[in-house]
Task: inverse folding
């Protein structure tokens, strides 16, 4: 029976998996998941995995029939490939849960053209990744195979899925582009959105530079239409360019909170908005300078400044003006058109929309730029809010070509699995192997349809290594999320990621005699970046975390001083190195929890299309770990913010931090609710956003609300940009 003929009524694994949700004598029957896994491998995988008499026969078939590229295979002696497979088979990899195996074979395993048979197992996909990303380097291929098969490293979904395939999409995850205040740039931006959505991945677009509705247009008797019509055009573009209907195109637009169209921008996402302006599938993000928090806190009026007037006075696009620093000058300048609103009313509008839809994302732009070690200005983020890199504007002429080619961004992502990396024999070697795999992606990414992205990637060599499984690690080690021990561990783990990615990037720069463009103007080159590591000893403080890191090298001030000297001498290859993305289906394959946030349920319920409900028990769930698995919806979000803040101090880019709320707030969770309504209010979200800003959080992703009727508002809809 082939996959096409498989009858869901004749297999047992769905029913076995569903029995997990039926308690037996008050206990969760976790054994049913193991039974479901065994049944799935026996009833679904074993009879439908195409087999071959030899490894040579397999590769010959896959190359001949255009399933695998021949070029990356030819870089190796075939005896080495056989040796690599022998190593992988001897690991005896096994999925731990039904969900892990189901997700891999449903979404990642290569199939025959007629969709009747699987063409690869997990070992085969790991081998393809190792051989492809090692680019002929046998030592690196073995090291990569070791990292991926032991699930210490997980390439981003586009990379893991497409590595080695003859017919594939791009290896990168998502893109960021900006539009400047003229029709040529708008047209070019819409075309770029079409092209990038066709390639695959989410697209972030900055609209902050566009003049507001009603602003004058040079040499034309009339007024500009503002940002909302451009949003509609972009939404239609993403809907049209959807990889032949295989997925919904995904995009986010960012607007500065001091833009005159900010109220209409937010209103376009409201459920009761007029259909002429309503955007249904486009995500919204707000760029928020520190000045907004100050004005809202003091309950003052705030002025909104038209970008065309600001650009006329400052000779740079609106995004490149420091609003906090220049606010009083902007208010006092009579040549800059402006209008006045109440800051606190806008703050309430933001909270109302987050309650209703989960949007907008929040980018604390001054925090991002203050901590930015690279010469230049961060102006926006991506579809998942973790990419924060400098950009330069382009100038597009009437022929839609460039008078000045600026720089935009592509995201080259991967993730560490915290539980498994902590068990590594050599933390530093593991991280260097991951950095080299990501370096292959940035080196071989060539998005020529959008030259500004192509240029930005070539100059910056940027990557984004992140992490998943933090809550799983806490539970396994009996640490409560948000406790002193959890903050201690998170601090040291991300300090180590920072140290070893810096060291790896420095090694690659030395090997290649090449740095990222502009290194000499960075805080790495002048040494100021390392000041905090030279003046404070980042070492475990709690006894439990000291025991956890026993035997793992923790760099002290002397080690950091040595690294600083090496970097100042030989440079860094990568402009950016770290970013914590959200983790979608790939975290299930890793049998771990997603990203850094708490779990949602001890037994997670997933609605799979055409299949129904599938249940996924939290990793390492047992009677002993049960008390350490509190749902995110029952967790004080300040604890989550504190954990992310412990990591953020070491992460040069950003993190996808989701806030989880209930429509009815559990008693005792937030002290300001005592004696007041237990319903979630706009004030609750305002307090949490301000708390995140005060703790140095650079960006906030969705606000997810669990409603009283058991639904979720603001659930993560983006599958294209997640790891």
Result:
């Amino acid at each position: 029976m082939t996959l096409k003929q498989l009858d869901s009524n004749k297999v047992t694994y769905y029913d076995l998996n569903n029995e997990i949700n039926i308690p037996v004598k008050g206990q969760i029957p976790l054994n049913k998941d193991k039974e479901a896994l065994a049944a799935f491998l026996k009833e679904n995988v074993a009879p439908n995995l195409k087999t071959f008499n030899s490894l040579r026969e397999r590769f010959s078939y896959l190359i001949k029939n255009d399933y695998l590229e021949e070029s990356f295979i030819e870089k190796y002696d075939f005896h080495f490939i056989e040796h690599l497979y022998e190593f992988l088979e001897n690991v005896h990899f096994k999925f731990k849960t039904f969900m892990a195996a189901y997700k891999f074979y449903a979404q990642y395993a290569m199939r025959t053209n007629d969709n009747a048979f699987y063409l690869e197992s997990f070992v085969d996909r790991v081998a393809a990744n190792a051989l492809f990303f090692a680019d002929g380097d046998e030592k690196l291929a073995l090291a990569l195979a070791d990292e991926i098969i032991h699930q210490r490293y997980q390439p981003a979904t586009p990379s893991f899925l497409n590595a080695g395939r003859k017919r594939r999409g791009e290896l990168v995850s998502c893109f960021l582009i900006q539009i400047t205040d003229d029709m040529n740039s708008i047209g070019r931006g819409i075309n770029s959105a079409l092209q990038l959505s066709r390639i695959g991945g989410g697209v972030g677009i900055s609209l902050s530079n566009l003049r507001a509705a009603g602003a004058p247009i040079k040499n034309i008797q009339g007024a500009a239409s503002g940002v909302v019509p451009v949003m509609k055009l972009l939404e239609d573009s993403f809907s049209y360019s959807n990889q032949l209907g295989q997925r919904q195109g995904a995009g986010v637009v960012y607007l500065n909170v001091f833009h005159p169209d900010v109220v209409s921008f937010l209103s376009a996402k409201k459920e009761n908005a007029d259909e002429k302006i309503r955007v249904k599938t486009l995500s919204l993000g707000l760029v928020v300078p520190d000045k907004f928090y100050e004005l809202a806190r003091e309950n003052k009026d705030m002025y909104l400044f038209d970008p065309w007037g600001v650009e006329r006075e400052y000779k740079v696009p609106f995004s490149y003006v420091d609003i906090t620093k220049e606010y009083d000058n902007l208010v006092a300048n009579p040549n800059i058109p402006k209008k006045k609103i109440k800051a606190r009313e806008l703050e309430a509008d933001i909270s109302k929309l987050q309650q209703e839809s989960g949007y907008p994302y929040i980018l604390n732009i001054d925090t991002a730029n203050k901590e930015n070690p690279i010469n230049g200005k961060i102006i926006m983020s991506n579809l998942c809010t973790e990419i924060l890199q400098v950009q330069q504007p382009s100038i597009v002429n009437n022929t839609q070509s460039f008078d000045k080619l600026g720089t935009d961004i592509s995201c080259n992502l991967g993730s560490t699995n915290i539980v498994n990396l902590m068990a590594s024999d050599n933390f530093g070697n593991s991280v260097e192997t991951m950095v080299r795999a990501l370096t292959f992606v940035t080196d071989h990414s060539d998005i020529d349809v959008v030259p500004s992205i192509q240029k930005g990637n070539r100059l910056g060599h940027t990557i984004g290594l992140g992490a998943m499984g933090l809550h799983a690690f806490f539970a396994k080690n009996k640490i409560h999320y948000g406790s002193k021990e959890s903050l201690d561990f998170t601090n040291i783990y991300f300090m180590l990621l920072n140290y070893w990615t810096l060291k790896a990037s420095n090694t690659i720069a030395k090997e290649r005699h090449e740095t990222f463009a502009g290194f000499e103007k960075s805080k790495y080159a002048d040494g100021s970046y390392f000041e905090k590591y030279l003046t404070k000893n980042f070492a475990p403080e709690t006894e439990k975390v000291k025991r956890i890191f026993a035997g793992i090298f923790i760099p002290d001030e002397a080690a950091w001083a040595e690294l600083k000297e090496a970097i100042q001498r030989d440079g860094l290859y990568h402009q950016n190195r770290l970013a914590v993305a959200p983790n979608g289906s790939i975290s299930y394959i890793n049998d771990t929890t997603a990203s850094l946030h708490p779990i949602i349920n001890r037994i997670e319920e997933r609605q799979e299309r055409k299949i129904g409900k599938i249940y996924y028990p939290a990793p390492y769930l047992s009677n002993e770990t049960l008390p350490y698995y509190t749902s995110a919806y029952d967790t004080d979000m300040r604890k989550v913010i504190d954990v992310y803040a412990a990591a953020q101090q070491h992460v040069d880019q950003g993190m996808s931090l989701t806030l989880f709320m209930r429509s009815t707030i559990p008693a005792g969770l937030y002290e300001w609710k005592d004696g007041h309504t237990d319903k979630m209010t706009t004030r609750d979200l305002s307090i949490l956003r301000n708390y995140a800003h005060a703790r140095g959080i650079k960006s906030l992703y969705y606000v997810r609300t669990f409603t009283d009727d058991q639904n979720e508002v603001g659930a993560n809809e983006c599958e294209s940009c997640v790891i």
Q: What stands out?
A: Residues 176-295+348-404 form a domain with the Anaerobic Ribonucleotide-triphosphate Reductase Large Chain fold (CATH 3.20.70.20). The longest strand covers residues 251-256. The chain has 28 helices and 23 strands. The chain has a mean pLDDT of 94.
